[in-house]
Design a protein that fits this description.
Layout: E1 8-13, E2 28-29, E3 32-33, H1 34-42, E4 49-54, H2 56-68, E5 72-75, H3 81-91, E6 96-101, H4 109-122, E7 126-130, E8 139-142, H5 143-152, H6 156-160, H7 164-168, E9 175-179, H8 196-209, H9 217-227
Parallel strand pairs: 1-4, 1-6, 4-5, 7-9
Antiparallel strand pairs: 2-3, 6-8, 7-8
Helix pairs in contact: 3-5
């Protein structure tokens, strides 16, 4: 594909057999399923590739949805998510990974672009915003740092949660944790989908705010401040 050092990719991880809320990526919200909203939210991010990273079992279900949203599908290990990301980074030959998860339909493309720009400017290994609601942000990862974590991580937890090794070994990685602008800082509430209660909240948000386009973070924050 391209030459390493040039390409960027949005990688969204998703699978059907989540433990606490099975098939949560397929749950309906106003305008589409959870995973469709995730992909629609991230499609505007400037990247060479937009890819849904899943396992073999889930890929058969996701592939048609992904194609409709302009995403490739990459199938890799189920439990070893770090290996899945590493393999995808090699196949697509990318230098920079914008990492998102399939249970965060309210992820912000605008702030993904902003942290990506800061990541590149600072030549960081791993970057993310602090302060924005859980479920609205991404992590930006240098592929060489990803490879290093993959080669050195021995704890199964570090293979399930791909950036854990980097956070545990900060002396070896340049980690940029940027405070978000005050106008979008709101730590009280998570809008990530993990439980039935989370799903009820997301349905309320989409019923009130979704107008055919991804929900903007500023509008989400205003909605949350009224209710929490």
């Amino acid at each position: 594909m391209g030459r390493r050092g040039i390409n960027k990719a949005v990688f969204v991880q998703a699978r059907l057999d989540s433990t606490r809320l099975p098939c949560k990526a397929l749950l309906p919200l106003k305008g589409g399923s959870v995973i469709q909203h995730v992909m629609r939210a991230l499609r505007p991010v400037s990247a060479d590739y937009h890819v849904l990273l899943t396992d073999k079992h889930s890929s058969e279900v996701f592939k048609y949805l992904a194609v409709d949203e302009g995403f490739d599908v990459f199938s890799g290990p189920g439990d070893d998510v770090l290996e899945r990301y590493y393999l995808a980074s090699m196949v697509y030959d990318v230098d920079t990974v914008i990492r998102a998860t399939g249970d965060n339909p309210l992820v912000s493309a605008f702030y993904a672009e902003r942290i990506l720009n800061l990541h590149e400017k600072e030549k960081a290994d791993l970057s993310h915003y602090l302060g924005i609601p859980l479920g609205t942000g991404v992590e930006v990862i240098n592929s060489r740092a990803l490879e290093s974590a993959r080669n050195k991580a021995v704890d199964p937890y570090e293979h399930e949660h791909i950036t854990t090794y980097m956070y545990r070994h900060r002396d070896f990685f340049k980690i940029l944790e940027k405070e978000a602008p005050l106008k979008v800082t709101f730590k009280k509430v998570s809008v990530s989908l993990d439980t039935g209660e989370d799903y009820i909240l997301l349905k309320s948000i989409y019923n009130d705010l979704y107008d055919g386009s991804p929900v903007e973070l500023n509008n989400l924050i205003s909605w949350l401040k009224v209710r929490f």
